[in-house]
Amino acid sequence: MTILDQIIENKQIEVARAKEKVSVEELQSSVYFKKETISLKSALLAQNSTGIISEYKRKSPSKGDINVGAGIAETTTGYAKAGAAGISVLTDTVFFGGFKEDLLIAREHNPSTPLLRKDFMIDEYQIYEAKAWGADVILLIAANLETEEIESLSKKAHELGLEVLLEVHNKEEIDKSPMQNVDIVGVNNRNLKNFAENNVNASIELFDFIPNDKVKISESCISHPDTVKQLRAIGYQGFLMGENFMKTSNPAKALEEFVELIK
Ligand SMILES: O=C(O)c1ccccc1NCC(=O)[C@H](O)[C@H](O)COP(=O)(O)O
C-alpha cells in the first residue's frame, strides 16, 4: 500500500464522519459562501507576478516534522507581503498536521490573496467545505481519481465558484483527465507513491502535453532560484513551494529573499 493509498483510505473515513457532523446546508450558511472568488489563475498571469504559490505545512509524510511552530496568521500574511501569487494551506491533519482552522485564519488575515485548500479531495462534500472555509481554489490529484470523478468534482467546484488546480505526474494522467473545468494544471515533481524526487524532470517532460489554454505550474521539490528561472524559460507560470520556506525559522522572510533572486 503506498502512502497515497493510506491517505485516501483515511480520508474516506474522515469524510464520512464529517458528513455526519456537519450538513451541506450548514456549510452553505457560512459567510464565505457569498464571497467572490479571488482568482489564482489571474494572479499567476498578472504582469510582474512572482508566480510563487507558497505553502503552509507543518509536516509531511516524506519529511516528517518541518515546522510545527510557525504561526498561520503571521506566516501567511508574511507570504502575501513578500509577493506570493497565492497561498496553499494544508487542511489534512493526520499526515500534514493541518486543520480547517488554518484555512479560516489564513482567509481572515488575507482578504485579497488567492487561497488553495490543499487536501485530498475525493467527495463533493469536501468542495462545499473548501468554499465554507474561505478557499478560492481546490486541488484534484489525478493519481487518486477516476476520470468520472475528476469530471464531477471539477464541475462542482466551478458551480460553487472555485477554481480547480489539477495535479498530474505523468502523461497518462493528463490524457485521462477531462479538462473543461480545470483552470490550472500542476506537474508534481515528487512521486507520491515512492517519494522519488530531487529534480524537476517531470515538469520539463510534461510541459508540451498540457493543453495550452491552461495555466501551467510546477509543484514540489523546488528550492533553487535557477530552477524557477529554468521552468519559467520553458513556459511555466507558477511554482508551488512548501518545504523550502517552511523549513526555515521565518518562512515569510525566506520567501522574500527568494523573490529577490528570481527577479
Ligand atoms: O510531501 C509529501 O510527503 C507528500 C506525500 C504524499 C502526498 C502529498 C505530499 N505532498 C504534497 C505536496 O504536493 C507538497 O506539499 C507541495 O507540492 C509542496 O512541495 P515541497 O515544495 O516539496 O514542500
TrEMBL record:
Keywords: Amino-acid biosynthesis, Aromatic amino acid biosynthesis, Coiled coil, Decarboxylase, Lyase, Tryptophan biosynthesis. Pfam families: IGPS. Gene3D superfamilies: Aldolase class I (3.20.20.70). It comes from the Bacteria. It catalyses: 1-(2-carboxyphenylamino)-1-deoxy-D-ribulose 5-phosphate + H(+) = (1S,2R)-1-C-(indol-3-yl)glycerol 3-phosphate + CO2 + H2O. One of its GO terms (biological process) is L-tryptophan biosynthetic process. Residues 1-28 form a coiled coil. PROSITE patterns: IGPS. GO terms for molecular function: indole-3-glycerol-phosphate synthase activity; phosphoribosylanthranilate isomerase activity. InterPro entries: Aldolase_TIM, Indole-3-glycerol_P_synth, Indole-3-glycerol_P_synth_dom, Indole-3-GlycerolPSynthase_CS, RibuloseP-bd_barrel. Pathway: Amino-acid biosynthesis; L-tryptophan biosynthesis; L-tryptophan from chorismate: step 4/5. Residues 4-257 form the Indole-3-glycerol phosphate synthase domain. Its EC number is 4.1.1.48. PANTHER family: INDOLE-3-GLYCEROL-PHOSPHATE SYNTHASE, TRYPTOPHAN BIOSYNTHESIS PROTEIN. This is indole-3-glycerol-phosphate synthase. The lineage of its organism: Bacteria, Pseudomonadati, Bacteroidota, Cytophagia, Cytophagales. The gene is trpC.
